[in-house]
């Protein structure tokens, strides 16, 4: 179980490293390099626009790779999604800027970001199912928290690399070539991840479906036809986690450096430290999810987010690093309270035959709702406004929506056993 969970963690960390390194670059350098004819604000918004394209692609990727996962197995998804994201990220590092190839530069940047999102859309579903479908029922949230530690670890790798480069290089060197180094590193990480993942076995739940002929012919159509309400509720519930994460890790970088005058290095340090604590708290919160249930943890996290957004903006606006760190840390604790259990919660909500598609689409639709819009909306709302209370209102509204969605979802742990597709009794609850 430790080997399986570790492989899920490492692979997920690599793919989220690829995704996050783009977000950090979008906040720091992509605007002037790929949209130099725009004003500084318009250039940042344009860079965040390409950032948002990755989130638009993620639900499409979850449909594509979810079909593969439900029809042909969870394991092929892990390999194909890692290759897709790794190729796209490495290619961004090789892409000439606007000054070299003109308008082709932002067009190609947009295409590569789309491919990044497509690959990541399949990654999460495959990784969490590989872990959750092997894990014992009483510790499913704990083992499922391993791939959930992948995003914080990937962020630490991405921001740590960027932080090191900004510290040792001049601004001119960083703009000229330094920002490309983290993208090139993605190619090396991808090779390592592939070597680890190709040795993994298929999950017992999928093997049973394959043996009994219980696989869905068209998983996406089946999810939309029979589980559309569950899909919308999970997407709405998880959207606040994405909104909070990208408000802290992406929008705050721009606001802190451009409007508060905080140095780029200081902002990267405080955000990276807050995410690091978030990652360390993930397994602890998952243990609480195994003890008290999935839904109570999600409700607690979304409620904390709703209460904390105005204090977060107030502390961020001080420009004092310690207070900014405190505001960011509590916001991310609200996130980890929810996201530590979703790797167990979402698979438990869907029946095995459509589980890869349903769980992945719900998770990635939340990214589209909360992650794609938040940096763009927050940047527009905070332009020349101090304190940016409009950003706090936006985040609070998303948190209240999420709380309502979690309140409408059922609990899945502990639940009575049910009969599977072949009459086999397992620990899963009946689907909503």
Structural features, described:
The chain is mainly alpha-helical. The chain contains 19 helices and two strands. It has helices at residues 2-28, 30-34, 40-72, 74-93, 98-101, 104-132, 140-148, 150-168, 171-176, 181-197, 204-212, 219-226, 228-259, 264-292, 294-317, 321-339, 342-349, 355-382, 389-408; strands at 418-419, 425-426. Strands 1-2 form a two-stranded antiparallel ribbon. A hairpin with a 5-residue loop joins strand 1 and strand 2. Helix content is 80%, strand content 1%.
User: How much beta, percentage-wise?
Assistant: under 5%
Radius of gyration: 21 Å
How far apart the termini lie comes to: 28 Å
* Strand ordering within the main sheet: 1-2
Largest sheet: 2 strands, antiparallel
Question: Which runs of at least 5 residues are low in confidence (pLDDT < 50)?
Answer: 416-432
Number of helices: 19
Please tell me what the overall shape is: globular
Helix content: over 70%
Order of helices and strands: HHHHHHHHHHHHHHHHHHHEE
Structural class label:
mainly alpha
Please give a quick description of this structure.
The protein has helices at residues 2-28, 30-34, 40-72, 74-93, 98-101, 104-132, 140-148, 150-168, 171-176, 181-197, 204-212, 219-226, 228-259, 264-292, 294-317, 321-339, 342-349, 355-382, 389-408; strands at residues 418-419, 425-426.
Give me some keywords for this one.
disordered C terminus; 432 residues; globular; 80% helix; 19 helices; mainly alpha
SSE blueprint:
Layout: H1 2-28, H2 30-34, H3 40-72, H4 74-93, H5 98-101, H6 104-132, H7 140-148, H8 150-168, H9 171-176, H10 181-197, H11 204-212, H12 219-226, H13 228-259, H14 264-292, H15 294-317, H16 321-339, H17 342-349, H18 355-382, H19 389-408, E1 418-419, E2 425-426
Antiparallel strand pairs: 1-2
